[in-house]
UniProtKB/TrEMBL annotation:
Coiled coil: none annotated. This is Uncharacterized protein. The lineage of its organism: Eukaryota, Metazoa, Spiralia, Gnathifera, Rotifera. The keyword Transmembrane helix applies. The chain crosses the membrane at residues 61-91, 97-118.
Length: 255
């Protein structure tokens, strides 16, 4: 966490930049440069914390959308989504598998729904209504419900196909963004491990939140934080708070 923040503000380390920011701008070029630097630094910070927030909560949003779809549209297909949500909430280490199965099932359902709108599909042939007939006794409490297998599964002919499959398209977009976010964060951490010349500790618990902690491995198989270690935490309150924030973020990820 702190490493990423330092990376976003690494341009402020140069003496020339610090001198311009601290001194009053005398020319319009210096004013423009100060405005550009501050805007760029703010953009990098927002970008960094935005990706971190997405890494924490995008999978929760995917599961929430799956539950909303199953609630707003009750059909046989959405039973698959409920089962996947239950597994995803119970076993976080199956996140990639849940995303893959959900994306495959949702894509297949969208394809079937679009094909069902073709003129070659005869609604009166697919829908077959079976009622209780020629029975000597019919219970008054019995409901005569038509047996429409296609509609029970979730397929029906509609003039507004965009509204019919809109939520499933939204779910597909969220799943795609989740895959992009995981790939982007993994690639970024690998680049940082090379840049700081330290070992990137892999989390042996493949859970929802993969903690970001750069550590230096010592000869005796012990490790310490590369940016702020335990010895530096004793130097002052500021260093202690940095170490505490980094360590809590790492432990929060493991938990």
């Amino acid at each position: 966490m702190l490493t990423g923040f330092l990376e976003n503000t690494d341009h402020a380390n140069s003496f020339h930049t610090q001198q311009i920011l601290q001194c009053e701008a005398k020319t319009w070029q210096e004013t423009l440069y100060k405005f550009y630097f501050r805007t760029n630094r703010l953009y990098k910070q927002i970008n960094y914390y935005g990706w971190r927030f997405a890494e924490l909560h995008i999978f929760k949003l995917v599961l929430l959308i799956m539950v909303l779809i199953s609630t707003l549209k009750v059909c046989g297909f959405n039973t698959i989504l409920i089962i996947l949500v239950t597994i995803g909430l119970t076993f976080f280490h199956l996140r990639k598998l849940i995303n893959l199965l959900t994306l495959s099932a949702t894509g297949l359902y969208i394809l079937l729904s679009m094909c069902y709108q073709f003129e070659i599909v005869k609604q009166h042939i697919i829908e077959k209504n079976f009622f209780i007939k020629n029975s000597s006794h019919i219970d008054s409490n019995m409901s005569l419900i038509p047996n429409d297998t296609a509609k029970w599964f979730g397929l029906e002919s509609t003039p507004n196909i965009d509204r019919f499959i809109g939520l499933y398209i939204l779910l597909t977009i969220r799943l795609t963004f989740d895959a992009i976010e995981r790939y982007r964060q993994k690639h970024r951490r690998l680049l940082l491990s090379v840049r700081f010349n330290v070992h990137l500790v892999e989390n042996r618990f493949p859970i929802l939140f993969q903690p970001f902690a750069l550590k230096t491995i010592n000869d005796d198989n012990t490790y310490e934080f590369d940016i702020v270690n335990y010895q530096q935490a004793d130097q002052g309150i500021y260093d202690f708070l940095k170490y505490l924030a980094n360590f809590i973020f790492y432990r929060f990820g493991l938990e």
